[in-house]
Specification:
This protein is of the alpha+beta class. It has a 5-stranded antiparallel sheet.
Length: 1024
Amino acid sequence: MALRTYFKIQIILWWAFSWPLTGGFAQRPEALPPSGPFSRLDGLTEAPVTAICQDNRGFLWIGTSHGLNRYDGTRVLAFYHAPFDTTSLSDNHITALWNDPNGMLWIGTRQGLNRYDPRSGSFTRFLHNPNTAGTLRSNTITCIAGSASTPQLLWVGTDKGVDRLKIENPEHEHSKVTIDRLPAKPTGQPVRQLFVDGQGRLWVSTATALFHTVAPCTSDNPVEFTTVTQADVPRGTASANQTCSFIPDSGQSFWIVSGKAIIRVEENSLHQPHYTAFFYPGAGELANPALAALDWRRKIFLLDNKNKPLLFNTQSRTFETPGSYYARLANAYDCTSIFCDRSRNIWVGTAGSGLFKYSLRNDLFHASGWSARPAHATYDHSLHFGNGIIDQNGWLWHPHKEGLACIDPSRGKVSVFHHDPTDSNSLSQDHVTVLLADPAMPERYLWVGTRGGGLNRLDRHTNHFSHYLEKNGLANSTITAILPDGQGHLWVSTSQGISQLQLDGKRQVVRVQNFGREHGLPEAAFDADAAFRATDGQLCFGGTNGWVWFYPDSVNDLLPAPPVVITDLRIHHQAVSHTGLGTPLSRPVSETKEITLPYHQNTLGFAFAALDFVAPEQNRYAYYLENYDAGWNEVGNHPEAMYTNLPPGRYTLHVRACNAGGVWNEEGARLVILIRAPWWKSWWAILLFAGLAGALMWSIFRSADRHRKLLQEAAVERARADEKQRQAENLEVQSQKLADAFLALKEKNSEVIAIQQKLIAQDRLATLGQLIAGIAHEIKTPLNFVTNFSDIAAEQADELLAELPPLQASIPPATYQNIHQLAADIRENTIDSRDNGQRALNIMHHLLNLSRGEEDRFYAIDLHALLDENLKLAYHGYRAIAPDFNVTIEKAYDPAIGQIEALPADLGRVLLNILNNAFEATHQKQQAAGKAYEPVLQLHTETTPAGVQIRIRDNGAGIPEDVQHKIFQPFFTTKPSGNGNAGLGLSISRDIIVKKHGGRLEVSSRSGEFTEFRIWLPARQDSH
C-alpha cells in the first residue's frame, strides 16, 4: 500500500512540473504616461500658465496670462475681469496664487491683489492708491505667502517691496483687512519669492539678494531684515538664476533651492539659522531655481539649465536621475511654474504649450525584460510545485481546466471541486489557474484563481467558496497569479492589471485597489503563474514582455478617497449661477447645503466631480436622491444626474465617487432640495377654498329656502284669492235669491277677517319674541353689572359698618347715628338692588330660552378637538393685531379622555377668553424683555376620579398677588381701560363653568413668572 502511494506521488509531481508556462520574453518599449497638455481648446483661458494652486476643497486653480481657471478633473471653470463689476477679478494677467488656512484664495495680478471667497463666489480687490495710506505700495503683485500658525497675517510681494496684511477674524466672510508697508528692501529689486519658516521669520528672495527678518513676525512687532550671504546660501553666477525658492520640511527646518545648491536650514543652539549645502552634480547651475516642488515621497523636483529634470531625495540627501517620464514633461517646453497636488501629480505650466501632468505613481512600478527566471520565494505555509501546492497536512492541491483537485496521499483519496450553477457556495469557474494558501490562516483558507470566474476563497472547514469578481472591484476576472505581501494582504495579477485585496483579521476582503497603465504599469496583461516574492519584500509579476516589480509598502497608501463636490446645477436644462437674476442660489452650488425651489422649477440636472487628478476619466460615480430613488444609481465615469417633474417635497441628493484605483468616498457630497407646493395646494389655500365652497353652499341653501317660502306664501295667497273669488261669485249669484244666506255669508266673512287678524297678531308676537330676545341679550350685560356691582357695594357697606364702632368715640353721637343709619340703608338698598337685578337676569334668561324655544342642552364633544379649535382661533386672532408675536405651544393631552358632556359654545367662550389673556400677557412680557425671552404656552388635560381637569399655563407677566382674589369679580381687570376691557370675561367664564357645568375654575399665578388656570368638569352620566 505504501509503495503504491509513493508511485502516485511521483506521477503527480512529474505531471505538475511538466505543466508549461505561457508568455513571451521580448523587451517592450516603455509606454508614455497617460498625460497631456491643457490648451485653450481643452478649456483653459490661455496657454501660458503663470501659477498653479490647490484649495482646501481639492479644486486645482490655474492662473494664466488671460484669466483664472478652476479644474475639477472634468470641467474647467473660467474667471475673468469684468468692467464695472467690482466683485470680479481686478485684472486677467495672473501672477501669483495662495490658498490660506481658512479656505480663501488670494490672487495676485498685474493690477492689484484679489481675495476669492468660495462661500460667496465673489472677489474682493486690494489696490494701490498713492493718495491713501493703508493701501498696497504697488499693483504689480509678484508673490504671496502666509503661515498656518499665523492665519491673521498675509505677506504680499510686489515690484516695489513687501506689504503685510492683517486680517481680523480671518474665518469670517467679511473680515477687515489692514495693510502695512514694510521697510524698503535692501536690494531695490522686485520681490521674487516669499516664505514664512517654522519660527515665524519672513524670508524674501529677489533676483540678486536673499534676506530674512531678524525676529519672528507678528501683527505688532516692527520688521527688521538681515541679509543672507553667498557663503551661507551660494547662488548662481548670473542675476537671472540667483532667485531662491523655499521648500518646507518636517519640524522647524526647511530647504532653500538656489542656483548652485539645495540648502537645508535648521535652528542652531543660538536660535539662528544653520545652513548645510548640497551642490548639484557636476557643479551645475539651475536656470530658474523657482521651479521646484516637493512630492509626497519627500523628493524635490527640479529643472536644470537645460530644462532636464532632477530629483533630490531629502531623506537620503542625494541627487537622483528620474525616469524618462519626467523628461517628457520638461524637454520640449519653456517651463514657467510647477506644483505637486494632493493626488501626487506634478503639474508643469509652460509659456506656450499649456499645462502638463505627471503622476508620481508612474515611478512606483519598475519594468525589466525577461532574463533567467528567478527562483520562487519560500512561503511559510505552503510548498509550491509547478502551479500546485502541498499544504501542511501533506495534501496536494492542483489547478486544472476541469476543476480544483485535492489529493490525500496517505489515504489515496482524490477530491475534485467543480462549478455548480445551482449552488452559490461552489467554485465560480471550473478553469482554475493558480492557488495560494492563505498567509495568515493556511490551515483553513485556500485562495483559488480562475480564468473568467475571478478569485475564490475556499473555507476548508465547510468546503464553501466565497467569490470576488469584477463587480466586487477586481481589475479583471481572469486571475494569473496571487502573491501575499508582508502584511498578509493579497496582490493578484490579471489580464487587465494588478489588484490589491486588503484583508481583515477574519480574512474577509475589506478593500480592493486596482493598478493599470494610468498608475505606471507598462502593460496590463500578465502571464499565468509568472510571479514571485523576493527576499527584500519586492513583488514581481511577469507579463508578455518581461517583469514588473515594486515594493508593496510604497504603493499601499497611494489611493486616498477623493473629495467629492457638486459643481453645477441646471434647472430646465439651463445652467444656474449664484450671480444670475432670480437665481435660487445665494452662493456657488459647491458651497450650498440647501436650496428652495418653486413648484414649477422641478426639472433639475446636477454635475459633480471627484477631485482626484491621477486619471479623471476613470473616476466612477454613483448618486441617490433620498425620498425619490429606490437605491443608488451607478453612472460610471459620467458625473451627471437628471431628474424631471419632481413632485413637491424635501429631497437630499447624495453623491459618492471613487478614483481610478477603486477607492470610494462613501461620505461624498450632499445637497438638500426643497420644492415648494403651488399656492393652490398650500394649507391656507385649501382652507380658503373650503371656506368659499361652504359659503357658496350656504348662500345657495339660503336662497333656495327663501325662494321656497316665497312660493309657498304666494300659493297660499293665490288659494285665498281664488276662494274669495268663488265666494264672491256665489254671493253675487245668490244675492238676489238668498238674503238670509247673504247675511250668513257676511257673518262668515267677518269670522274670516277675525282669523286673519289673529294670524297677523301671532306673526307680530313671534317678531316681538325675537325683538325681546335681542333686547334681553343686550340687557344682560348691564344687569350683570348691576348685580355684581350690588354685591361689591354690599361688601363695601359691610366693611363701612365694621369700621364705624372704633370711631364712635371721636364722632358726635347724632352724626354717628346718621352715618350708621345711612350705611345700613345703603346696604339694605344694595341687597334689594342685587336681588331685583338677579331676578331680572333670571327673567332675561327665561326670555332667551323662550325665544329659542328650548333650554340649554349638553352635547357629547371631543374635548381635545375643542381645545385645538379655540387655540387656533385665539392664536391667529391675536397675530392679526400683533404680527410679530410668536409663542411655543406645549401640549400634554391625556389619551384616556374620550368624549365629554358639555355646552360646547359656552365652554368654547371660556377657553377662548383664557387663551386670549395668555397671549396678551406673554406678548407684553416679550415687548418688555426683548429677544432674551421666549413665550411658552402649555396645555394639559388629565382624567381625575371626579371628572376631567384642564390646565392652561403661560410664562407671561403674571398676576400680582394682591389682586388675584379679585380676578373673577365682574368689572375687575388689570388691563388698561378704554379699549373695550369691561372686566367681565373671567366672571362670565366662571359662571359658565361653575353654574352651567357644575365645575370649578381656579387661578394660580406668580408675578413676573407665570399664570395657570385650572378647569374641573364633572363627569355627567345623563345625556340630554
